[in-house]
Amino acid sequence: MCQDVVVPADSRVRRTREEILSVAARLFAERGYAATSTRLIADAVGIRQASLYYHFPSKEAVLAELLASTVRPSLELCRDLEAADLAPAEALRRLVTFDVGVLLRVEGNVGLLYALPEVGTDPFSTFRTERAELRDAYARLATAALAPGVHPVTADLVLGLVESVIPLRRDSPKLPPPDEVGEALAAAALRMLGAG
Amino acid sequence: MCQDVVVPADSRVRRTREEILSVAARLFAERGYAATSTRLIADAVGIRQASLYYHFPSKEAVLAELLASTVRPSLELCRDLEAADLAPAEALRRLVTFDVGVLLRVEGNVGLLYALPEVGTDPFSTFRTERAELRDAYARLATAALAPGVHPVTADLVLGLVESVIPLRRDSPKLPPPDEVGEALAAAALRMLGAG
DNA sequence: ATTATCTATAGATCTATAGATAATGC
DNA sequence: ATTATCTATAGATCTATAGATAATGC
Q: Phi-psi category of B108—alpha, beta or left, where left has phi over 0 and alpha has psi -120 to 50?
């Protein structure tokens, strides 16, 4: 058994690695994955293009790590909420406000990464699986909260409604504070389901 | 004055040009703009890479034409509806069902093109202007239909809700018929605004 | 004669690797 | 001594142009 290599949280290599992630997230979201060269990322970080490959084995690995970090917190909350035996409408309200808060606050509008067409290709299938889990959790909660007489497809619209804050944030710079948008959107989702 | 050059609707050049557009739309939506090479498009059409440049001056021009053709029909309907002096809720219901129908029926899920990050770059600013017009029209109608006591930001969510059928179509292959989804979504939008 | 396509290629990328060197920390 | 970066470059693209040739239609 060998000991884990301990990297202090503020070591130089750690900071560089995280700056690469942060810069790449912003550039991928703004310009697209294929249109963002490793040179462009490196220049923005202030290192040479080849030095990226000390921190990541490939450009794909950079995007893969970004994607993983965006979906995991929501997935964990989903599991907690489903275990907590709340009324479906209340569980959904909490999930929606949490996700809207994250999407509006995260730097660089990283939520846009979900929609990158390249994410549909083979190297990112792990992320797609995790994302499908999140979609299913939303659909289960929304279906349970659905009022009689409301068309069942409405339950599949909730996640899309939540994520519509991503382009909204890009296109409408003057938005109310995240918490206010989150509560308004959660209330809108519940009205939409007839669960007001 | 010179006469316009008349190109018959089914001429060979016209068919090739339209097949380029159709194939490019599908590939851009599936794989992204930068990740789709002119060679890949040409191979799928069955011509040589260089022959694309007889029909289009650049790769950008192909995407620009696709974008223009997707936003224009909705913009025209918007203008008609605003002129027709309907109740805002009814005008919005018609606009929503129309757009959902188009987005669900158009071949190759071309709606995904809206979200391509490359669309945010300079060469596509004309499209972005037209798209901003559509967004404003949605916001005007939705604001007019908003019930008292409902948070105003809710009006800005309607377009996002409509466009959430684009990823829905990609991720949930088994969806009800377009008309049914359109009506369910329009009803959901009106409930969300408190205008049920 | 004109239109639509082809072959061939220039010139500019891009990712990733090899091997050298500078900075860090015991 | 190890870690993090650098320079240099191989090899594979990619867009767009030049000029030749085949198909079309009067």
A: left
Give chain A's residues under pLDDT 70: 1-12
Residues 6+ apart with CB under 8 A from A190: A89, A92, A93, A145, A196
pLDDT digits (tens, 9 = 90+) for B155-166: 999 999 999 999
> Which positions in chain A touch B132 (Cβ < 8 Å)?
171
Find the length of chain A: 196
Whether B34 has its CB under 8 Å from any CB of chain A: the answer is yes
Q: CA-to-CA distance for B103 and B21, rounded, in angstroms? A: 17
* Claim: this prediction has a pTM higher than 0.85: yes
> pLDDT digits over B2-29, tens only?
333 445 555 667 789 999 999 999 999 9
Average pLDDT, chain B: 92
What is the length of chain B? 196
Cβ-nearest to A29 among B29, B117, B181: B117
As a whole number, mean pLDDT of residues B116-142 equals 95
Q: Which helix (H) or strand (E) holds B41?
A: helix B38-45
pLDDT tens profile A143-188? 999 999 999 999 999 999 999 999 999 998 899 999 999 999 999 9
Residue nearest D14 (alpha carbon to C1'): B37
Give the gap in angstroms from C-alpha B184 to the nearest C-alpha of chain A: 6
